[in-house]
Write a structure and sequence with these properties.
- The protein is mainly beta.
- It has a single domain, classed as RNA polymerase II/Efflux pump adaptor protein, barrel-sandwich hybrid domain (OB fold (Dihydrolipoamide Acetyltransferase, E2P), Beta Barrel), CATH 2.40.50.
- Helix content is 0%, strand content 41%.
- Strand 7 and strand 8 (81-89) form a beta hairpin.
Length: 90
C-alpha cells in the first residue's frame, strides 16, 4: 500500500494580475522630471539623453521636456549589433 496520498493536480491557480507593462508617455508629449515613460521586462528599450533607467528596467524622465523615440543600433558583448529603441527627453 502507498504511504503517501495522491497529490492530485491544481488547475485554476494562475490568477495573477497583469504587470501593466508598456509605453506610458508617447512621442511629442510633455513630461516632468521623474515621470514614468516606459515600464518593461528587460532592456527592450534603452534610456537616452534626459532619461534614466531604474532597477526594474523602468525608464523615467530625468528632466522636464518632450518625449521622443529613436531607432539606434546597440552593440552586444559579443560584438553583434541589435536594433533598439532609445527613449529621449529634450
Amino acid at each position: 500500500m502507498s504511504h503517501v496520498k495522491a497529490g492530485g493536480s491544481s488547475k485554476n491557480v494562475h490568477n495573477n494580475a497583469g504587470a501593466r507593462l508598456g509605453v506610458k508617455r508617447w512621442g511629442g508629449q510633455k513630461v516632468s522630471a521623474g515621470a514614468v515613460l516606459v515600464r518593461q521586462t528587460g532592456s527592450t528599450k534603452i534610456a537616452g539623453p534626459g532619461t534614466y533607467i531604474s532597477r526594474n528596467f523602468t525608464i523615467h524622465a530625468a528632466k522636464d521636456g518632450i518625449v521622443g523615440f529613436k531607432k539606434v543600433k546597440k552593440a552586444k558583448f559579443t560584438g553583434h549589433t541589435v536594433p533598439r529603441t532609445q527613449v529621449v527627453v529634450e
